[in-house]
Amino acid sequence: MVQETQDPDGTLIVDAFHNWNSESVPETLRNIPAEKISHYHIDDAGSSKTPGNQTDPDRVMPGDGQINLKAEIEILHEIGYDKTVSLELFNQDW
């Protein structure tokens, strides 16, 4: 969408949970210029469901789930992303 609009101010919010739940691979991040990422939501996916079957309340604390967060973070560093990272949980237990 950001590429299609060609809006110079257009950016993306990247979310670890949505990347994983849509079965994207961490390497997909390499195709996004760092300056087009405005925000990174860090969260993890509970271990009870497979990708594509989780909803927002299935998010768990980083490191407590199935997402390869280390790979995503390494790629974000590699492409030069140095902006906002925020924890995003919709899990009522937290």
What does this structure look like?
It is a single chain. The chain is built from 3 helices and 5 strands. The chain is an alpha/beta fold and about 90 residues long. It has one domain. It has a 3-stranded parallel β-sheet with strand order 1-2-5. Strands 3-4 form a two-stranded antiparallel sheet. The longest helix has 11 residues. The protein is globular, with a radius of gyration of 14 Å.
Compose a concise summary of this entry.
This protein is an alpha/beta fold and 94 residues long. It has three helices and five strands.
On the 0-100 scale, what is the average pLDDT?
92
Shape: globular
Strand content: 15-25%
Overall number of structural domains: 1
Order of helices and strands: HEHEEEHE
Into which percent range does the helicity of residues fall? 10-25%
Number of helix segments?
A: 3
Lateral arrangement of strands in the main beta sheet: 1-2-5
SSE topology:
Layout: H1 2-5, E1 12-15, H2 16-21, E2 37-42, E3 44-45, E4 59-60, H3 69-79, E5 84-87
Parallel strand pairs: 1-2, 2-5
Antiparallel strand pairs: 3-4
Please name the defining characteristics of this protein.
single chain; 94 residues; alpha/beta; three-stranded parallel β-sheet; 3 helices; 5 strands; 22% helix; globular
